[in-house]
Write a structure and sequence with these properties.
Elements (H helix, E strand, L loop, with lengths): L8 E14 L13 E13 L12 H12 L5 E2 L13 H15 L8 E7 L4 E8 L8 E14 L13 E13 L12 H13 L4 E2 H4 L7 H15 L5 E10 L2 E7 L2 E16 L13 E13 L12 H13 L4 E2 L13 H15 L11 E8 L4 E9 L8 E5 L13 E3 L4 E3 L3 H7 L4 E4 L6 H7 L9 E2 L7 H11 L6 E4 L3 H9 L15 H8 L10 H19 L2 H11 L8 E7 L7 H10 L4 E8 L2 H13 L3 E4 L5 E7 L5 E8 L2 H4 L9 E3 L9 H11 L4 E15 L11 H14 L6 H10 L3 E7 L2 E3 L6 H18 L4 H10 L3 E12 L11 E8 L2 E7 L9 E11 L3 H7 L31 E8 L11 E4 L6 E5 L4 E2 L6 H4 L2 H14 L6 E5 L3 H10 L4 E5 L3 H9 L4 E3 L9 E6 L4 H10 E9 L14 H6 L2 E4 L15 H15 L1 H4 L2 E5 L3 H9 L5 E5 L8 E2 L2
Parallel strand pairs: 1-3, 6-8, 11-13, 16-19, 16-21, 19-20, 22-23, 22-27, 23-26, 27-28, 39-40, 39-42, 40-41, 42-43, 43-44, 45-46
Antiparallel strand pairs: 1-2, 1-15, 2-4, 4-5, 5-6, 6-7, 7-9, 9-10, 10-11, 11-12, 12-14, 14-15, 17-18, 24-25, 25-26, 28-31, 29-31, 30-31, 32-33, 34-35, 34-37, 34-46, 35-36, 36-38, 45-47
Helix pairs in contact: 1-2, 3-5, 6-7, 10-11, 18-20, 19-21, 21-22, 25-26, 25-30
Length: 1185
């Protein structure tokens, strides 16, 4: 049987110790038959394929250490001879390792989190024993390993130019480790092999070479470490019995650097490099304890590269200096960096496991192409340790990247604005895809990247291009880029092989100088048609180079797509369309068609065929596309067919007249316009809307409403609607660093969704049906693209460019996947559906009945079922809720019944509350975030699908007037957006308080409003937070308070301005007492029916205090002329962006049906802030304190 194979994935090593006493039975044990003591050093190595989500570790190191401690504790300071579990057995290292393994395995979490456990037992630095076995049920028997070490000195001279100075005769000290593997112990002795025997055999085997000249003693072979391993291995193998051993592995180390190993029956040769990296980072999660704060550490990183074969000269296929240079390049991306600020990690926990995977990917990309004998079967493992008691490792088989060893040199001086990193739709080298922000690309691309500029300071260009994360050591400013001498010297400057350097960009003069200096420029110059992100992907072979100007590429793409689409159309759906069209035609049998996203009129031929089949006399065809170049190409095609073209009075409109094959008159209008803009114009009479490969580009409710507005009651034919399935045939399961097709396609679909595509056509059909329409037919339209298909290279570009960032971030090699896909000639299969619909006649709400919350009596919460209006008013929108926030101030008073009954409305400025009085039952709430799912006729179509904030009560839906909506910024999460009223209130209070520079401000109450007031005033005044709760005072300090005290510690008459926002009447008295004469007291609380008793005696009478009642509904005061509500909302969004309250404040979130529990938690003071989640967004109860 073969020895235990290596496992791809992560491993964690922890260390413990146990002092034991024991004795052995058997003459082989000599003096150890007497009772004696020993200290075992025990390592537990835990392995698994993936990291825990969000935490980003395989297992918490403290948990791993605890499991090992628990396993060792029963044996520590014990006489093992007296323990029942070892009765009648020799407690050899092997037997002890098995016992510790069993106890440790029981204390660890079960698979699939962990899959393998290895226990290593050492009693000296010269020998150790291992026991390794899978943790899953039914795992094969475990593997024992016994290892011993020997040394010898010898002289040698190596043959071959690559050995440099070692070709001269020189001396060397070799360390030899022999590893014996087997699964069965000697039943009577309790060991795998007599360790004294193998120590003697190893000593005899090395003695034959000790103090000899290996040039002669090895029989004339090149005396490499591999040859030494072979010679000693043969001698050892002759001296040990085959049973119960399975294999022997020999590792030869020269000068304490492992150089190679030899396994019986199979060669596995290894080179090792070591590097160091100083970093700073912090962690998220209570399990990390003090490490949640920013801290620094130094990583010691070992890289091991193993290959199954040697070069013809007997040396290693990879030279150690290559591995060392590549490791230095890989570590340079992190050295002296704060990993929290590295875009590569996206704010995730930068555990040793995550860093190991990142370094692994960069190291794999930095290695030069494999030398003779190394191609295939290489394994690259990387271990990181920050202490002597714990270690983390990641290993994976290595397939050299297509752009192996490439070092990217980005010339900053010739990059046009087109190369900037903003998210935009642009032409790829072969088609239309979304751009990749350079910042994201640079963060994860595993190749070393340098920025070069002739300017003395290129930092502004770095920021503009999205390369601000490049460390200073990777920026070469003030360079003589037009001098060949600079480029000739560059390999020595940065420590890289000249053949690996690749210039990206550069003017003609710079590119000529680089070529003269021996540096290649493999990609064309940058331009608007070939921006920086595309160039970087092309250089590392994740994309093809451009085929021409962008507009021409888009036309050629659609021409390549047309035959694939035509072969895929569903015949059944087309037949059903003919049936539905016939009864709609009225004399003179005219068919009125609207083509959305018309491109180069790919649908025209299909419509002409339909019209002729049903006997149309006239076809009026309006083609709409936002791309002027595509419609220009369409017009040229019509002219070639003999159509008469004429310019219309309207701008960006071309008219064409011609005839179909059967003689039907064709009247075409080509309109350059955004289809959404058409929806805000009166609808023209239309019988049919066609839109090919279009329906997946819009949110389903928005598209349903768009079509209903453009052609109410018409038919809609939407062929080639992507159904979320892309695959290759035959499939490939991946090998080494090449991901499987399944993994690549999963990343591709995630990319499409992230770019705003919708991959579930059934959602769109349901949206049409919910709006009053009907599905009439649907059928599969599958694209089958062999390598020779015109569309194939475009599809390959879409997948490889769209997945590169995600695959690199996960340690995979997208360039190697692309290369392999081309080599194996796999064909693409893309599943689409053709959809035929009847559109609704008018705009209806998208949702059914919905639940709304009611406050029915003091501390009584209920729900009422409500029905949406049958039709939406012209200026009304339907908002389906995502999250709403319960106010811990005013709303909590309403819940408790602590409000004064009056004729005043709940809120005269909020539409949902201004008609409701202060009496039960009442709907309440004014902080709801949701998605616009339906809109009246006067609401711009662009609002459909947007996330919005509305001042509406807690309910699953809200129907509100469009002008009152506030769009949620893209950067803002729904949970943060729900804080908008609180942030606006805080700003209103700060404006009313208006402290002057240098003044002292007291803020009473560090609840959500008080904390946001403190954040709003940060930097403008010295703020002291006053609150009886210590945790709230701590939060106040973190949000910018200069001091935080309890009410008892408050200094009297010390504040220039006091702000009372606690809701506690006693705090108002403290505010009056704590404010200097002629100061200002801002009363921001609403006390409801609470009794307010104040001491307003002589001191107050003489104080000249100004008391301001602050309320947020309107903008009043001297600043009202400058500050509108709209301006204050903008400032409130800015405050939310700076504070991120859902992350910084103690938030409790519950599903909407658990609203009563949320109110109760607030009422009892268990929670400080509560939000309700709705629908699919709802999650079980969770809190953050």
């Amino acid at each position: 049987m073969a020895m235990q194979s290596w496992q791809e994935g992560f491993s964690v090593r922890v260390r413990g110790r146990a002092q034991v006493a024991h004795s052995f039975s058997g003459e082989e044990f000599g003096t150890a038959q007497a009772l004696h003591g020993i200290t075992f050093t025990v390592d537990a190595v835990l392995s698994g394929p993936a990291l825990l989500p969000h935490l980003n570790f395989l297992i918490d190191l403290t948990d791993a250490e605890a499991a090992l401690r628990e396993a060792l504790a029963p044996y520590d300071r014990r006489n093992l001879d007296e323990m029942e579990e070892f009765a009648g057995q020799n407690t050899t290292c092997e037997r002890f390792a098995l016992a510790v393994w069993q106890r440790c395995a029981a204390a660890l979490p079960p698979p699939p989190a962990l899959t393998m456990l290895k226990i290593v037992v050492r009693e000296s630095d010269l020998a150790f024993v291992e026991y390794e076995r899978g943790l899953e049920a039914g795992a094969p028997p475990g593997l024992y390993t016994v290892a011993v070490r020997g040394r010898f000195m010898a002289a040698r001279s190596l043959r071959g130019e690559r050995f440099g100075a070692s070709q001269r005769l020189h001396g060397a000290t070799f360390i030899v480790d022999a590893h014996f593997h087997g699964r069965k112990l000697d039943a009577s002795k309790g060991f795998l092999i007599d360790i004294c025997l193998v120590e003697r055999l190893l000593a005899e085997s090395t003695a034959a070479l000790h103090q000899t000249n290996l040039d002669q003693s090895l029989g004339g072979v090149n005396p490499t470490a591999v040859a030494v391993a072979d010679a000693i291995g043969e001698r050892l193998a002759r001296g040990v019995a085959a049973e119960p051993l399975e294999s022997l592995r020999l590792a030869v180390t020269e000068h304490f650097r492992p150089a190679g190993s030899r396994a019986a029956g199979e060669q596995l040769h290894t080179v090792v490099a070591r590097g160091r990296c100083m970093i700073a980072h912090s962690f998220k999660g209570a399990s990390f304890g003090a490490a949640q704060a920013l801290h620094g550490c130094t990583y010691v990183v070992d890289a091991r590269l193993s290959a199954p074969r040697v070069a013809s000269d007997g040396g290693f296929p990879r030279e150690r200096r290559e591995l060392e240079a590549a490791l230095a390049l890989a570590l340079g991306a992190y050295d002296r960096r704060n990993l929290d600020e590295c875009a590569e990690f996206g704010g995730a926990n930068t555990t040793c496991e995550m860093v190991a995977r990142g370094v692994w990917a960069r190291l794999a990309a930095a290695l030069p192409a494999a030398a003779e004998g190394a191609a295939g079967g290489e394994v690259l493992s990387l271990s990181i340790r920050e202490s002597d008691v714990a270690c983390v490792a990641f290993q994976r088989a290595l397939r050299p990247p297509a752009a192996a060893g490439t070092v990217l040199l980005v010339d900053l001086d010739a990059i046009e604005p087109a190369g900037q990193p903003e998210e935009a739709v642009a032409s790829s080298p072969t088609g239309i895809v979304h751009r990749t922000p350079v910042e994201r690309l640079a963060a994860v691309i595993p190749h070393a990247m340098y920025a070069i500029s002739a300017e003395a300071d290129g930092r502004a260009a770095l920021v503009r291009l999205g390369l601000a994360s490049l460390p200073p050591s990777r920026c070469l400013f003030g360079a003589a880029t037009t001098s060949p001498a600079f480029w000739a010297q560059l390999p020595l400057t940065i420590g890289a092989d000249a053949a690996c350097l690749a210039l990206v960009g550069g003017s003609d003069d710079v590119r000529a100088a680089a070529a003269a200096g021996g540096v290649r420029a493999p990609s064309p110059p940058l331009s608007a048609d070939f921006p920086l992100d595309r160039a970087l992907l092309a250089v590392v072979q994740c994309a093809s180079s451009p085929r021409g100007a962008a507009h021409a590429a888009r036309v050629e793409y659609l021409r390549a797509k047309r035959p694939a689409d035509q072969a895929a159309y569903s015949a059944a759906v087309l037949d059903r369309l003919k049936e539905q069209l016939l009864p709609r035609l009225t004399p003179p049998r005219e068919l009125r068609v609207l083509d959305l996203g018309a491109g180069i009129l790919s649908m025209l031929a299909q419509v002409e065929s339909l019209a002729d089949a049903i006997g149309c006399a006239v076809v009026t065809y309006e083609a709409v596309d936002s791309d002027e170049a595509l419609l220009a190409a369409a017009a040229a095609q019509l002219a070639e067919r003999g159509f008469e073209l004429s310019a219309a009075e309207e701008a960006a409109v071309t008219r064409a007249t011609g005839a179909s094959a059967a003689g039907a008159a064709l009247h075409l209008t080509l309109r350059v316009a955004d289809v959404l803009s058409l929806a805000d114009q009166p609808a023209a009479p239309r019988d049919l809307v066609v839109a090919s490969a279009f329906a997946d580009l819009f949110p389903p409710p928005q598209l349903a409403a768009l079509l209903a507005r453009l052609a109410p009651g018409a038919l809609a034919y939407l062929p080639i609607t992507f159904d979320g399935v892309t695959r290759l045939e035959p499939p490939h399961n991946g090998v080494g660093s090449v991901p499987s097709d399944e993994r690549v396609m999963a990343a591709y679909h995630e990319h499409l969704e992230a770019q705003g595509q919708y991959l579930h056509p059934s959602d769109f059909v349901r949206a049409v049906e919910a709006a009053g329409g009907a599905m009439l037919a649907t059928g599969l339209s599958r694209l089958k693209l062999p390598p020779e298909a015109p569309l194939y290279p475009y599809m390959l570009d879409f997948v490889s460019t769209g997945t590169a960032v995600a695959l690199w971030a996960d340690g995979w090699d997208p360039a190697a996947w692309r290369e392999l896909a081309i080599a194996r000639r796999a064909r693409f299969i893309v599943d689409n559906v053709d959809i035929l619909l009847r559109l609704p006649e008018a705009v209806q709400p998208a949702g059914d009945s919905y639940q709304a919350l009611e406050l029915r009596a003091p501390r009584s919460v209920g729900f009422v079922l409500r029905t949406p209006p049958p039709l939406l008013d012209a200026d009304t929108v339907e908002v389906r809720s995502i999250v709403s926030m319960i106010s811990g101030g005013t709303e909590l008073l309403m819940y408790r019944g602590d409000f004064d009954v009056s004729d005043e409305p709940l809120d005269k400025t909020i539409g949902g509350l201004k008609d409701a009085g202060l009496a039960y039952p009442m709907s309440y709430g004014y902080a709801l975030v949701g998605t616009v799912t339906a809109a009246g006729a006067h609401v711009p179509m662009g609002w459909l699908g947007k996330r919005v904030f509305t001042f509406a009560p807690h309910a699953e839906a809200a129907y509100t007037r469009f002008p009152s909506l506030l769009e949620v910024p893209e950067w803002c999460s729904p949970a943060d957006a729900a804080f908008l009223p609180s942030a606006e209130t805080a700003l209103s209070i700060a404006h009313d308080a208006h402290p002057r520079t240098g003044e002292v401000v007291y803020v009473f109450g560090a609840g959500v409003i008080g904390l946001l007031v403190i954040a709003a005033l940060q930097g403008s005044a010295a703020v002291t937070a006053v609150d009886p709760v210590a945790s709230r005072r701590d939060l106040a300090l973190r949000l910018g308070a200069a001091a935080a005290v309890s009410p008892e510690q408050l200094r009297r008459r010390a504040a220039d301005v006091s702000i009372e926002c606690s809701g506690n009447p006693a705090a108002l008295q403290a505010a009056l007492d704590g404010t200097r004469d002629a100061g200002t007291v801002v009363l921001a609380s609403w006390y409801g029916r609470k009794a307010v008793t104040l001491a307003l005696g002589t001191r107050f009478h003489r104080s000249h205090l100004k008391i301001i009642a602050s309320q947020v509904s309107e903008v009043v005061g001297e600043h009202a002329a400058r500050w509108s509500k709209a301006r204050r909302f903008e400032a409130a969004w800015a405050l939310i962006e700076r504070v991120r309250p859902s992350e910084k404040l103690p938030l409790t979130t519950l599903p909407f049906p658990n609203a009563a529990e949320a109110y109760d938690l607030l009422d009892r003071g268990v929670a400080t802030i509560a939000q309700l989640r709705y629908g699919e967004e709802a999650q079980p109860h969770r809190s953050r304190f």
